[in-house]
Write a structure and sequence with these properties.
18 helices; 11-stranded mixed sheet; alpha/beta
Length: about 475
């Protein structure tokens, strides 16, 4: 009896995680034992796995792999392709990269934290981009999302796409303002037999999108992009930036996007960064109390309108949607945790952010901040050295205990047992030189009683929804 690894699986390993089966359709790595790897390597189409000399333990593992659909029976000689054979990368595991392939943009957004409207924004030359792609492949990065600036503004955009695909790297999402998302772009992706999702910015009906983007007619182009994605079978999520001026449009904005086939929305308040901080000539900035009240007021409308989104994320506050109609989440609330064993951000540890300059960062919010300059840049420094750089390792390994040591106020706070110190990106907004700073949005969530308000509001709107808060003291 002969078996072979199915075509969509490859055998890989990394430092400290030496054995994995990777699904090349999704980039997902399932980590296995050395004995499981030994069993899979027998499934090369050359070895009769029913042979009496093969231990029963390995035969059982082969049967399990067949049941899971990882391997299939074959004729003798129909073995591994070269790309499927075991390979171990000489670096720790990085699952994905969120890559700003350019700092340039075709819009003049009033709130751009990268200040991309600046005509001097950096865009790496083609040769450097290709070297970076080689480094991603050499380190076993399986998934990449592309952003900017405006990712589609690069003239070599499809050269980048082709180079990634040639190296077996999946393009999961493309982030765009929508102006350049055309039928031709989608057809070019279809020709390559890929359908990455799109994340497209939309900032309010009634003219507010045009106002924030700084370009007349921006909404028409964005609406067209969403409709094209819907009609051509590409998923398209929306990112909505909120401020005092457009907060009243939230309900109409969500329903408008739903009518265009958008199934997932993430909102966020505009931070005092980049263009907003430097050039804003308006009084549209939000305080946390304002944004939280806006969100709380909207929650009943969301349920009243039949939950028009699969997932609606009102960041940093509340998440719900029709995908899981009787579930919801509250930002910042966690069950009790062990500070020594809890990392401040798990995303840091397996996913990298690459700036337009090629700097390998732990958080995308660092782009344009002073802290960005602490990190080395590709291609001058190889990716495997970037992720072993002392500052990168220090930030990746930070725990809740480290945060508490740096913040006496939090050590004595009664809410500490449920708060990880909050998102480090939001902390940087408050003080870009202090990654261990206090996240004031998380403080407002707990100390302002918003968790109780959310639970009470949802209970009235959706009595069947399961409350995520187990600590009843939070609701008193």
């Amino acid at each position: 009896m002969y078996y072979r690894l199915k075509d969509n699986y490859i055998l890989r390993g990394w430092e400290k995680l030496p054995y994995a089966v990777v699904d090349t359709r999704t980039g997902r790595a399932d980590f296995i034992t050395g004995q499981q790897m030994q069993a899979l390597e027998l499934c090369d189409g050359e070895i009769d796995v029913s042979d009496i000399f093969i231990p029963e333990t390995l035969k059982e593992l082969i049967a399990e792999a067949a049941e899971k659909g990882i391997i299939e029976q074959c004729k003798k000689g129909e073995g591994f392709k070269d790309i499927q054979k075991y390979r171990k990368y000489q670096n720790r595991y990085i699952s994905s990269a969120h890559w700003s392939i350019t700092g340039k943009c075709n819009y003049k957004c009033r709130h751009c934290y990268m200040s991309a409207p600046d005509v001097n924004a950096y865009e790496a030359p083609h040769e450097d981009i290709m070297k970076i792609i080689d480094m991603l492949a050499e380190c076993g990065v399986m998934k990449v999302s592309l952003t900017g600036g405006e990712a589609l503004i690069r003239k070599d955009f499809f050269d980048i796409v082709d180079a990634l695909l040639e190296r077996g790297i999946i393009i999961t999402r493309i982030y765009s303002n929508g102006a350049l998302v055309t039928e031709n772009v989608l057809r070019e992706l279809e020709k390559r037999k890929i359908r990455p999702g799109f994340n497209i910015s939309f900032d309010g009906v009634d003219g507010w999108h045009d106002w924030l983007r700084g370009v007349e007619g921006a909404q028409k182009l964005t609406d067209r992009a969403f409709a094209l994605c819907r009609d051509m079978g590409f998923s398209a999520n929306a990112t909505v930036s909120l401020h005092q001026g457009n907060k009243h449009t939230l309900r109409d904005t969500v329903n408008h996007l739903a009518s265009l086939g958008v199934k997932q929305i993430k909102t966020a308040y505009i931070a005092e960064l980049g263009e907003w901080k430097t050039h804003s000539d308006n009084d549209n900035s939000f305080g946390f109390k304002d944004i939280f009240q806006t969100y709380l007021d909207y929650i009943p409308y969301f349920y009243e309108d039949g939950m028009p989104m699969d997932i609606l994320s009102l960041a940093p506050f509340f998440t719900a949607g029709r995908k899981y109609p009787n579930k919801y989440q509250i930002f910042g609330y966690n069950e009790e945790y062990d500070p020594k064993e809890t990392f401040l951000c798990t995303t840091y540890r397996t996913s990298i952010r690459i700036s337009p300059e090629g700097r390998v960062l732990t958080c995308g919010m660092m782009i344009g901040m002073n802290i960005e300059k602490l990190f080395p840049a590709m291609p001058e420094t190889h990716l495997r050295d970037c992720i072993n750089f002392p500052e990168y390792l220090r930030l990746s390994n930070m725990t809740a205990e480290d945060f508490l040591k740096a913040n006496e106020e939090c050590r004595t706070c009664k809410f500490t047992k449920h708060c990880y110190g909050g998102c480090r990106g939001y902390a940087l907004i408050e003080d870009e030189n202090n990654l261990m700073g206090i996240n004031k949005s998380a403080c407002e969530m707990f100390k302002g009683g918003w968790i109780k308000k959310i639970v009470e509001t949802v209970k009235k709107c959706r009595p069947t929804a399961e409350c995520p808060v187990k600590d009843l003291s939070m609701l008193q």
